Amino acid sequence: MRRKLVAGNWKMNGGLAFNAALLAEIKAGLKQVDCDVALCAPAPYLAQCQSELAGTPIGWGGQDLSAHAAGAYTGEVAASMLQDFSCQYVIVGHSERRAYHAESNELVAQKALRALQTGLTPIVCVGETLAEREAGRTDEVVGQQLDAVLQLLDGAELAKIVVAYEPVWAIGTGKTATPQMAQDVHAALRAKLSAKNAGAANVVKILYGGSMKPDNAGELLAMPDIDGGLIGGAALKAADFLAIIAAA
Ligand SMILES: O=C[C@H](O)COP(=O)(O)O
């Protein structure tokens, strides 16, 4: 039985005052927590997350990291820097990074490896565009995205990753994959993991992301291969985020 993970991705939103209010409301509203919870914040606010969330059931993490350990890479954030702020998680290969920063499957895999080598749990995002889905290429596209990771990691490393299936057409659009559509892709991803290492496939959490909200979280999270959610917009509203945690 995999414990569910509800991870918020604030994307490039927030500010000191906004975050303080949001975190206070989430902490106050968090009752019994039967799942793992995490927030992935913009790098400048990780110190704030650390001071506000240490000692709570909520973990925190970054939204990206460099594949390099250190050096002349202006603007990038090293895994060791995330570690300095006690991050447990880091998102890699979000579709916005793939689309706007031309991140390749191979680079995303290298980032996942770097995270693991630093003791961080990478949340590896995969997902197809609307054109790819309509062309019947969903499994092929997400399969290739996952393959790059499978090629780089050994079985022990693989068991430590989290995968997030995020259909690009469902992100921030209000359109959600139906529970069955999502389940089908999650099952295909788990089969791929299993072909590489059956033990790892059993423990790897596969999250769904893409307009997950309080009103659809319950039925998505009830699917056998959906092990949680990667939440964008709804993570910026305490009541919505708390409702999704409760559904998990
Ligand atoms: O990382 C989160 C996803 O991109 C989902 O965003 P969304 O919940 O706003 O659709």
From TrEMBL:
It is found in: Cytoplasm. It catalyses: D-glyceraldehyde 3-phosphate = dihydroxyacetone phosphate. It comes from the Bacteria. Pathway: Carbohydrate degradation; glycolysis; D-glyceraldehyde 3-phosphate from glycerone phosphate: step 1/1; Carbohydrate biosynthesis; gluconeogenesis; Carbohydrate metabolism; erythritol degradation. PROSITE patterns: TIM_1 (PS00171), TIM_2 (PS51440). PANTHER family: TRIOSEPHOSPHATE ISOMERASE. This is Triosephosphate isomerase. It comes from Paraherbaspirillum soli.
